[in-house]
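Quick board copy: two proteins, each given as sequence then tokens.
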Amino acid sequence: MTSMAGTLVAAVNKMTQWRAHMRAKSTTVNGYTFHYYEGGDGEPLVLLHGLADNRTSFLRSAAALTRRYRIILPDLPGHGANAADPGLDYSISGHVQALHGFLQHLGLEEFHLGGNSMGGHISAAYAIAHSGRVRSLILVNAPGLQVDDHLVYVGFGDRMKTAEDLDAVLARVYYRTPRLPTPVVRHLIEESDRAFEHTNAMVHAIRTGGDYYLNARVSEIRKPTLILWGRHDVVVRSNVAEAYKDAIRDSRLVFLEEGAHSPQLEIPGAVADAVTTFLDEVNSPAGRGFADDGLRGDPAAAAPPRRPQKRTLT
């Protein structure tokens, strides 16, 4: 049953990939193989998935975006079809280095960059580290700023065993929790169990590694930025969105009323529409910014302590 469900999930993803005019590709950078989707023509737009997700995350939004942009959706290190190498650095700064090597390998010199959740956190850190390469930035329910004592990266806790356990996880991601066929539920629980220890190890790397909090440097982001937020997110609260808006001068905050933590999974069309509107404005002849003159936050936080280095991909 689980095998049949896995086949069904793969078939649905394949159909979605086809409808989005995306091709599955892979390339090896410094001995590590990255799997990714690519499709469309125009300026490059790179979109990153979140923790314990994969390159399919933005596929349905890509169906609208490939009409005007070259879309690249990579599996991040340790995710999806990429190897779960325990020797890699899975901190945010480690992901930034790995992403930089991957994008350099593809020959991308300038591009639009965005992501959901951890992928947005990585995107923000990348825009700070490699500002000259980022044309614009899209943060979709992205953590990375400390505004209170609420923790985002908490790991999986106990292993999921029942449909109720899965529903509890989905309820944190979706505004309206999807009802899934029993075989698919069993498949997702099995996949979660298989990745349980690896995912928690990645969470530990994020919480103890570089760029965990970006407060001290986020105001260095000088690129046009769309802060796109599912209104009902309980994972990364809306005060983080407001903090990003205050800190990044050339930014716009847009709330999606029918979305939660991962709106690209639930309302992909609305996400695509918001991204398209934003990029149209970025590419307008005026090239105007989005923030009111003189509005600029300056949040601060102590930089995380240095930790023993793990292998990076650059």
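And the next:
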Amino acid sequence: MKLVIPKMREAKRIKWVAYAAVMSLWFELSYIIIQAAKGRRSHFNFETPIENALYGLMGIGAFFLVLISFLVGIMIWRYGYKDHSGLRYGAIIGLIVGSVLTLIFAGFMSTDPTYIKQKLTLEASVIPYLGWFKVTGDYKPAHFVATHMMQLLPLIGMWLDKAKLGNKLSNLMGKKNATVLFAFIFIALAFALFAQALYGIPFIKS
């Protein structure tokens, strides 16, 4: 939020957005940790009425978190310092585009009945730690790229601002164009992985 001018940073609506983000994240993490401690799934768990309801609330909380990320990107664009830094361009593009793509891919994951059935029956055939299917297509890699675009593109912007190689690329293309180039790489990768999932091709075959 330091990219936003102080007057807007101190506005009540900005504070409410920050409070809402913290509360949504607190709920998400708390429920995930509690379910993990009990040896139960937090996601795609419809086995009991309370777990079904809490999973629905998780979806609302996740939507709200992504919406807040989108709004922060808009705020930096409209009310941020107009310093033409790579960090500013990376934050604006990463937060806005990453949020939109995250909602698209998450929407497919949470509403595709075939995917949900596979999620519940193929848990043994996944890549360790990542949980991506090894025997069929999976939306999670595309979701992963889209979500982490929100963090990585601002970091790339900082690299363009401060690193020697980043400065050379900035001088060659301009910081805005260089940031847009990296954004297109993320977008292309995300949609390639999404297409792979739609065709039922696993990210890594077992």
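Board note added afterward: The two ends are 43 Å apart (CA to CA).
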